[in-house]
Amino acid sequence: MAYVAIADQGQELSHPHSFVTKYIWSQDHKVIAIQYSITAIAVGLVALGLSFVMRLQLAFPDTFSFIDPSSYYQSVTMHGMIMVIYLLTALFLGGFGNYLIPLQLGARDMVFPFLNMLSYWVYLLSVIVLLASFFVTGGPTGAGWTLYPPQSILPGTPGADWGILLMLLSLAIFIVAFTMGGLNYVTTVLQARTRGMTLMRMPLSVWGIFMATILGLLAFPALFVSAIMMTFDRLLGTSFFMPAVLSLGDQLATDGGSPVLFQHLFWFFGHPEVYIVALPAFGIVSDLLSVHARKNIFGYRMMVWAIVAIGALSFVVWAHHMYVSGMNPYFGFFFATTTLIIAVPTAIKVYNWVLTLWKGDIHLTVPMLFAIGFIFTFINGGLTGLFLGNVVVDLPLSDTYFVVAHFHLVMGVSPVLVVCGAIYHWYPKLAGRMLNDTLGQVHFWLTFIGTYVIYFPMYYLGILGLPRRYYSNGVTEFIPESVGSVNVAITTAALFVGIAQLLFVVNLITSLRFGKKADPNPWRATTLEWQTPQTPPDHGNWGPELPQVYRWAYDYSVPGAAEDFTPQNEPPPGQAA
Amino acid sequence: MSIFKILANKPWQQSGQIDNLQGGDVVVMPSARIGLWVFLAVVASLFGLFTSAYHMRAGYADWQQLDAPALLWLNTGVLVLTSVAFQWAWMASRQGKLTAVRDGLTVGGALTMAFLLLQFLAWQQMIAAGYFAYTNPANAFFYLLTGAHALHLLGGLWVWSKTTTRVWAGLDEENAEEVGRVRLRVELCTIYWHFLLLVWLVLFGLMLST
Questions:
Q1: B49 and A265: CB-CB below 8 Å?
Q2: Shortest CA distance to B34 belongs to which of A7, A5, A9?
C-alpha cells in the first residue's frame, strides 16, 4: 500500500477553541515550546539562587547562619542537577526544539502532537518531584550532581533518607518525558519536511537539535538504569553498587557491589549529556552568526559532518571523567586518545565560525554580540578541556576549581550566551515585538565581562590545588590568604551577573507589552520560520498551503542577487512560485 | 539514502525545485512506524545497558548463578505463543480478514496477560524459596530484569487495548482509511511484541548461562 508523504497530505491538527485547550492543554508546538521554556527558566532561576548560597559561603565563610555543610552540599547538588538537566537540556530540546523544528522545516506541527503535549506535563511533574525534595525530612540530596554511591545513599550525606529517592524518581520521570519529546523531534525531522526541504537544506539549528535528540535517546537509558539500580540499593538493600562498607561504625549487610560500575553507567550518560547541551548551541550559533553577518555559514557540509562526528564520538570518551577512579592506565590512554580526537571536529566548527565572520557584513546587534561572546568563551573553556583530557595533567587538576572553571565556561557560559542570543533573535517571531535594545546591551556586557571575572580566576585557584566541593578549607598551608580575596571578587561579580539576568527577565516580560512592534522578518533572514504569513504564527503555521523550498538556508549576500538575502521559499529567477 | 551520500551533496549549488524530499531515494513510511523503530532503539539501549551492568557485576566474587525456576520455561513458551498470535493477526490484516484479526489480537492479549501473571507467580516462588533481592546480586538482577521487561509488556498492553476495542466495536470494511489504520496498528503491535520476545530470550539466556 502506498503511503503519502506528510508534506502532501493535509495534516489533521486538533483545533482548540477554549482558553484552556489553546494555552494550557495545548497540542500546538509553539505553545508547548513556551511552556517548556518558562518552566526551565523558572527552575533555572532557583538554581541561580542556590549558586549564590555557594558563593556567599566561599566568599564569607561562617558568616551566614543558614549555610552549614549540609545546606552547602545540597545547594551544590541541586544547582548542578537543575542547571544541566532541568534547565539546559529541557530548554534546548523542549524549548528551542519544539519551537524551531516544525517552523524551520515547513511543517504545521510535530508529527505526534498529543505525545508532545504529554511530554511537557510529564517534564513539569519531574520538576515538581525534584523541588519537593526541598520540603522532605532531611532535605534534598547533597551527593553532588554525580550522585556517586555508596555515599549518596548512606547517612552522613544530606538527603540520604528521602532526598536521594525523590531525585532518582524525578530523573526517571524526566527521562520518560524526554523520550516522548525525543520521538517527536526525530520523527518530525525525518518525516515532516516540506517539499524541497532536503536534509542538506535544513538550517544548522535543526541539525544540532536533531543530533542532540538522537544522543539523548541513546544515552539517557544509562542514567535510567543507574537510577533504578541505585533505588534498589537504597530501598531493597541490594548490592549493585554497594561494597562491603562501614557506616557510622557499623558494617552494613551489603557486599560485593561496585561503585565504579555506577561511575561507568553515569558517565556513559554524562558525557553525551554535555553534547546534548552543546550541539544545539553549536547549531543555533551558526545560524545567528550567518544571519547577523549577512554571510553563509562557512563550510556548511563540514559543519554537518562535524555535528554527526561529535555525536558519534561522544559515546566513546566517557571515562575521561574517571581518570582518578583507579582504573587501568591503558583504559586511561584509550579514552585520552578518543577525547583528543573529538576535539578535532569541534575545532573545525570553531574555525568555520570565525571564517563565517571574516569579511562579513557584521551587524553588531544584541544577538550577534552574544554569538561572538560564545566564540570567545567556548574557545577559552574548550582549550582547557585539552588539559583535562590528558590523563597525567588531569591527575593534579581533577576535582579542583580548574575543572569547575572549564565546565562552567563550556556548559554554563557559552550555551547560556547562545540561549540569550537566540531569545533576542527569535523573540520578534514569537511575540511580534522587539526586545529592548539598551537593556539587551547592558545584559550582554555585564554577563560577558562578569562571567570572565567569575571563572577565569578559578583556573588559577585550581592550579594552586584548591579543591572543589569543599564547604570550607580551614587553615591549610598550600592555600594562601589571597584565595579568600579572590573568592570575594568572584562572588561580587556573580552578584552583578545575577542582577543582569534579572534585567533580562524584566525585558522579556515588559517587551510583551511595550516592545517596539516587529516586522515579520526584522533580521532579514532566509530560513522558513521568518516567512510565515502571520507573526506570531497562527495555529498551523503556514495558512492554506505549505511552503515550497528552492534553496539552502544560507543565501546571504549572493553576488548578483537583488537583496542581500534570498528566502528559502523564493523561487529561482524566471520561475513562478 | 546513506548518510554518506546525504552528507556529500552540495546544497548551495542546487537551487531550484526538488520534487522529492531527499533529493534522491525517497523513503515514504508512516510516521508511527518510524516512531516505533526509534522507540525500539531506546528500549534496546536500555536493555543493552542493563546487560552490560549485569556482565560487569557478574565478574565479582560474590556472584552466585541463579537457580531459575522451571516455571520460566513455561512462561517463555507462552510468550512465543503471543508472538505467534500477533503474527497471525498481522497476516490476516494484510489479507483483509477482519474476524481473524480480531481473534488474533484477543488471543495475543490474553496470552500476554497470562504471561504477566505467570511471571508474578515465578516471583512468588522465588520469594517463598528464600531468594530475596538483597541476598545475592543475581537475584537482584532477576527481579530487576524481569520487572523491566514486564513493565514494557504492560505498556504494550495499553496500546493493544485501544486497538482491540476498536476492532471489536466493528469496522466499516469499505472504508480504506479506517482499515489501513487498524492494519498499521496491528503491524506495530506485532513488531513490538516480537521485539520484547527477543529481549526476553536474551535476558533468559543470560540468566541461565551466568
A1: yes
A2: A5
Residue B93 inside a domain? The answer is yes
> Which stretches of chain A drop beneath a pLDDT of 50?
1-4
Q: What are the sequence ranges of the domains in chain A?
A: 24-238+259-531
Reference A241, options A228, A257, A265; nearest CA is A257
Q: What is the pLDDT of residue B7?
A: 75
pLDDT for residue B16: 73
DSSP code of A318? G
Q: Looking at beta carbons, which residues of chain A come within 8 Å of B9?
A: 198, 200
Give the mean pLDDT per block of 10 residues along chain B (210 residues).
75 72 57 94 97 92 86 96 96 90 95 97 93 90 96 96 90 80 93 97 92
**Are residues A229 and B144, on separate chains, in Cβ contact within 8 Å?**
yes
ipTM given for this complex: 0.91
Are the beta carbons of B21 and A255 separated by less than 8 Å?
A: no
Secondary structure in 3-state letters for A210-258: HHHHHHHHHHHHHHHHHHHHHHHHHHHCCCCCCCCCEECCEECCCCCCC
* Chain A CB within 8 Å of residue B155 CB: no
Give how far A378 is from chain B: nearest CA, Å: 26
CATH of the domain at B193: 1.20.120.80
- Evaluate whether A94 touches A36 at the Cβ level (below 8 Å): yes
Cell 520538576, residue located: A127
pLDDT at B22: 47
What is the fold of A24-238+259-531?
Answer: Cytochrome C Oxidase; Chain A (1.20.210)
